[in-house]
Amino acid sequence: MSAQPRAPRDSHYRLVLWNIGSTLLDVARVNRAAYAEAFRAVTGRPLVQVPQMAGRTDSETFFEALAVNATGPVPGDPAGEELLGRFVVQLAVAFRARRDLLTTQGRLMPGALEAVTAVWRLPGLVQTVVTGAIRPNAIEVLRAFGLDRYLDTEIGGFGSEVYPKGGMLLNARGRAAEKYRTSFTEHTTVYIADSTRDVEAARIGACRSIGVASGRSSAGELRDAGADVVLDDLADTAAVVAAVDQFTTPVRS
């Protein structure tokens, strides 16, 4: 169940968008196995070469996997879109079959649960996820680690959408504005993620960005990409809360 809307304790709503993989959680081992099974199921061929997934959606990664494994259609080709649709279904099935492995082969990133809980307590704040994972798989993993209760996943952005992450951020802001009947501006919205591609997506999606150097991108790379602030990880809860508060508090005249 997604987080229930709360009456704001402040006249201004603030929006926090979290990436999942390598920011909040590491379930790469389970994800790779599910991905390989789904890829073989829809193409009839093994996934020999796994493309880089950091900062990409499952839809983007699928077409890159087709290209690097020389197995067929490209984005925009009707045959490719049909194949993607079947792949998404198979990926959800393969991931669900491995749900019992999530907490044994996966892990919460240091401080993730404490950070999400503390941010959730900030006044006038809504938080959700914008992730490359397709919606069913994202919900499965958030639920497995007890994070779903703090996140309104109804307004989130997921890899099931055939949009780059910048577009997903804009769409999530629009859904949040409609549901909560308020406006989330670039000065009251922040994206917390771990890759340089995510920092770029935040810029395209017109929001601030907090880079977390817990994935493949280093702290220096995140700074060079334009992150508003960079944290080594989420272990310092006070630092996470302070950064969120700084980049989501509206400036009053």
The SS-based structural class is alpha/beta
Helix content: 40-55%
Tell me which CATH architecture of the largest domain applies here.
3-Layer(aba) Sandwich
**CATH T-level fold name of the largest domain:** Rossmann fold
Record the strand order, biggest sheet. 4-1-5-6-7
Number of domains: 2
The N- to C-terminal Cα distance equals 39 Å
CATH class of the largest domain, named Alpha Beta
Strand count, sense and barrel status of the largest sheet are: 5 strands, parallel
Tally the helices. 10
Number of strands: 7
Run of helices and strands? EEHHHHEHEHHEHEHEH
Mind telling me the C-alpha Rg? 18 Å
- How big a fraction of the residues is strand? 5-15%
Anisotropy-based shape: globular
Overall pLDDT score: 88
Low-confidence stretches: 7-11
**What's the CATH superfamily of the largest domain, by name?**
HAD superfamily/HAD-like
Q: What key phrases describe this protein's structure?
A:
253 residues; five-stranded parallel β-sheet
What does this 3D model show about the protein?
This protein has 253 residues and is α/β, with parallel strands linked by helices. It has 2 domains: 14-27 and 107-248, HAD superfamily/HAD-like (Rossmann fold); 28-102. Helices cover 45% and strands 11% of the residues. The chain contains 10 helices and 7 strands. A 5-stranded parallel beta sheet has the order 4-1-5-6-7, with helices on both faces. Helix 1 packs across helix 3 (78-96) and helix 2 (58-68) packs across helix 3 (78-96). The longest helix has 19 residues, at 78-96. It starts with 13 loop residues before the first strand and ends in a 5-residue tail after the last helix.
